[in-house]
Structures are given as C-alpha cells and as structure tokens.
Design brief:
single chain, about 170 residues, alpha+beta, 2 domains, 5-stranded antiparallel β-sheet, about 45% helix
Length: about 170
C-alpha cells in the first residue's frame, strides 16, 4: 500500500545554462566519480515559480567515458551514487524503447498503463513475423520479382501477384 504523503520523485540531467543557488553541500566519495552532492534552489523566474522546492544536484564523472554529468532530483533519501546508477539504468530503458520503435515499427504507444505497453510490445514481434511470412509467400508466388520489398503491392505491372499470388496466399 502506498503512503499518501510520498511524492513521486524525478531524476533528470540538468542543462548547462540552468540558474540555481547552492544552499548546502554534503561530503562525497570522489574515488567513485562523484564530484558534489548539493541542495539547491532554482533561481530563474519561471523555474522558481513552477518548482519553489529545494532540489538536489549531483555532479558525477563517468569513469568509462570520462564525461561529466550533472543530475537534478527531488529525492534526498538515496545516496548520491545510487542516483547516478539510477540515471544509467534509466538510460538503458530509453535505449531499449528506441530500439523497439526503430525495429518493431512502433511509432507511438497507444496507452500509458503498464498493461497497454506490455501488450503492444508483445504484439509487435508477432506482426513483424506475419509481415515476413507474407513477404516470403509473395516472393514464392512471384519468382520473377527481383527486388527485396513488397513490389507486388506497389507496382502497376503486378499480374504475377494479382493472378498467381492471391490464389496461392489464400489457400
């Protein structure tokens, strides 16, 4: 059961031109790649108006890439290194969804619930498999076609597909 007092937390990378004021700094273990763990408030007019709460800024240097990263979150409970790991894991999820959209032809998710996303992800490979079977059936029915895509659907001279392919696909 979820407590009513608990707010969801966010974790994002902070832009280089974000204006903020440091209120407090906590000690960090620099051998882990952490550079600072600070409590901040945003000082920009709209940022201060939209989010007047204190936030947490964590600076981290990725040891593999050597890239300096700055994270902002409203979660003050978890250790700074955990925040950096959460972002890395979140990035893996982003890459996974990008791969799904590119390879399984999912351009947008039709629902936002966990069940809707899972259903669409499970249906996409089945649809791709059926498209492949249809493609192979068309190629088998029309051996004269030389190109590697659904020419039978787009060509004006598709007598092979219209007269032979449909009959063979239907049986």
């Amino acid at each position: 059961m979820r407590s009513r007092n608990r707010r969801p937390f966010f974790l994002t990378r902070i832009k280089s031109n974000t204006c903020y004021r440091r209120l407090y700094s906590r000690p960090v273990d620099k051998s882990l790649g952490l550079r600072c763990d600070q409590t901040i408030v945003l000082t920009g007019f709209y940022a201060r108006r939209d989010d007047p709460d204190k936030l947490r800024l964590i600076k981290y240097v990725d040891p593999e890439a050597g890239k300096a990263l700055r994270f902002m979150t409203n979660n003050f409970i978890v250790p700074a290194m955990t925040v950096a790991e959460l972002y890395r894991c979140r990035w893996q999820v982003e890459l996974f969804f990008r791969w799904i959209k590119q390879h399984l032809r999912i351009k947008a998710f039709f629902g936002t619930s966990e069940n809707a996303v899972k259903t669409q992800i499970w249906i996409a490979p089945e649809t791709a498999w059926q498209e492949l079977e249809n493609y192979l059936a068309v190629r088998k029915a029309c051996p004269r076609e030389e190109e590697n895509h659904y020419l039978a659907f787009e060509r004006k001279n598709t007598e092979c597909f219209h007269f032979n392919g449909i009959d063979k696909l239907a049986t």
